[in-house]
Amino acid sequence: MSESLYERLGAEKGIVKIVDDVVEAHMNNPVISARFTPYLEQPENLAKIKTHTVNFFTTGSGGPQVYAGRDMETTHKGMNISAAEYMETMDDIFKVLDKHGKNAETKKDVLEILWSLKGMIIGK
């Protein structure tokens, strides 16, 4: 029996580390940093966003937790995220997955999730 994506991402502990690194990468990415750096002055909101993201990826990757946050369209409504911005977020995520030594199968599975969400996020 093969490991679930959740297990390959390092379970909850690994996903927390990945999310922390992805948020840091987004804050340092000149194309999208303006969307993320304001949260540095809102630590409670930043912690909440990270928690929701961890729960979302934990649930979506086969973990035991249940995501109870807002759906992607509601979360991103009014943000008008461009396709280029979305691609930058994906690039950051894959750089972090590489940093964490994730294999091609794991990255492919994450790509499938991210690609399935794009229509709920871009241009909303």
Automatic annotation (TrEMBL):
GO molecular function term, any single one: heme binding
Organism name: Algoriphagus machipongonensis
Binding site for heme: H52, H76
Any GO BP annotation: oxygen transport
Entry-linked InterPro entries: Globin-like_sf, Globin/Proto, Globin_bac-like_CS, Hemoglobin_trunc
Protein name stated in the entry: Globin
Keyword terms, alphabetized: Heme, Iron, Metal-binding, Transport
Transit peptide found in the keyword field: no
